[in-house]
Design goal:
Strand order of the largest sheet: 3-4-5-6-9-10-11-12-13-14
Helix content: 25-40%
Strand content: 15-25%
Largest sheet: 10 strands, mixed
Number of domains: 2
Number of strands: 14
Number of helices: 12
CATH class of the largest domain: Alpha Beta
CATH superfamily of the largest domain: Aldolase class I
Bound molecules: S-adenosyl-L-homocysteine, iron/sulfur cluster
Order of helices and strands: EHHHEEEEEEHEHEHEHEHHEHEHEH
Radius of gyration: 21 Å
Structural class: alpha/beta
CATH topology of the largest domain: TIM Barrel
């Protein structure tokens, strides 16, 4: 029989039902779950406390869903690596591991490509292929966790900030988050998980009701509708007023600070007026702004803001007491910008 069931796609209760159907005692589900999410086993031979016939049946009828790597790029200092992983149907997705002083952060994808089509984004330039399953999302985090485990290290943070728009693949993204959080399994703290959205208002509203303590990041890039319409096409559907109302709602429901992402593009969204418009939008909102100089991509002519422009922009934010972080362009030299490694393969 062809392997059809991907174990990473199952939540614990589905895994339990599967093994019950197979006539296995109840405790086997817990054992298998721990092999998958605590020991991070990638194949069944490692699962030594499972009887051989069960391991053979698992090998014949299921796969874990671990993803093979097809391409890797490493930053000069080795702190950032980016891997292109192959899915069962031959599609590929990117996942990035960033090593900071204490944190080990995996940036993972939720879709193959993206339908939103932000012009500066390599993923958007390539168009939409398909949604990922929850298991395909989880597998990217486990891929890095397994490597770190081999170095006696561990993955501490996960950001859904790779290819795709998580709130347009809502169910699988949320299932993946809950699976990574499971305290009998991978046990990743909610506060160590970030979901980045382009601003899908109904999705933010739904997320606010999930009773989760994850961080919401909103890719803002502009604080006036006229400019944001150009940079983030979905802004024509979900205007800034509605987006900020949803963000206020998110903070109210969760008590969590919202992050706003802003890729600084020379001469486009880096004028002091935009900084002032941003400050005005943030009044009374528990928020933090992440400024990132644009990562140049093939299909977009914009360039990162110069240091002088950047200083003027941040001076304006300082003046209005807007909390922000100026991010270094991590891994720009390895094309760590979203969608760029896949673009390189396609060439
Ligand atoms: N679709 C989601 C999550 C994936 S994109 C979103 O848009 O939020 C992850 C982040 O990378 C977003 O903040 C996006 O705006 C940013 N990004 C995409 N292309 C970029 C580029 N060329 N330079 C800098 N940031 C970029
Ligand atoms: Fe999609 Fe996000 Fe890229 Fe926009 S920035 S095209 S929403 S992945």
């Amino acid at each position: 029989m062809q392997p059809t069931i991907r174990l990473y796609d199952l939540d614990f209760s589905s895994l339990r039902s599967l093994l019950a159907e197979w006539g296995e005692p109840a405790y086997r589900a817990r054992q298998l779950w721990e092999w998958l999410y605590v020991h991070l086993a990638a194949d069944f031979d490692q699962m030594t406390n499972l009887p051989k016939p069960l391991r053979e049946r698992l090998a014949a009828e299921t796969t874990t869903g671990a993803l093979p790597v097809v391409d890797t790029a490493r930053s000069a200092g080795g702190k950032t690596r980016k891997d292109l992983l192959r899915l069962a149907d031959g599609e590929t997705v990117e996942a990035v591991l960033m090593r900071y002083e204490r944190r080990r952060t995996a940036c993972i994808s939720t879709q193959v490509g993206c339908a939103v089509g932000c012009p500066f984004c390599a993923t958007g330039q390539a168009g939409f292929r398909r949604d990922l399953t929850s298991g395909e999302i989880v597998a990217q985090a486990l891929y890095f966790a397994r490597q770190l485990q081999a170095e006696r290290d561990r993955l501490t943070n996960v950001v859904l900030m790779g290819m795709g728009e998580p709130l347009l693949n809502y169910e699988s993204s949320l299932a993946a988050i809950r699976r990574l959080m499971d305290d009998g399994g991978f046990n990743l703290g909610q506060r160590h998980i970030t979901l980045s959205t382009v601003g899908i208002v109904p999705g933010i509203e739904q997320l606010a009701g999930e009773d989760l303590q994850i961080t919401l990041a909103v890719s803002l890039h502009a604080a006036t509708d006229a400019l944001r319409d150009q940079l983030v096409p979905i802004n024509r559907r979900y205007r800034l007023d509605a987006l900020f109302e949803a963000c206020y709602g998110y903070v109210e429901r969760t008590g969590r600070r919202v992050s706003f992402e802003w890729a600084l593009i020379e001469g486009v969204n880096d004028a002091p007026e935009q900084a002032r418009a941003l400050a005005a939008r943030l009044v009374g909102l528990l928020a933090h702004v992440n400024l990132i100089p644009l990562n140049p991509t093939q299909g977009y002519s914009g360039s990162p803001s110069s240091n002088t422009t950047l200083d003027a922009f941040t001076a304006e934010l300082d003046r209005f007491h807007v909390p922000y972080t100026l991010r270094v362009r991590r891994g720009a030299e390895i094309q760590a910008g979203c969608g760029q490694l896949r673009q390189r393969q396609a060439r």
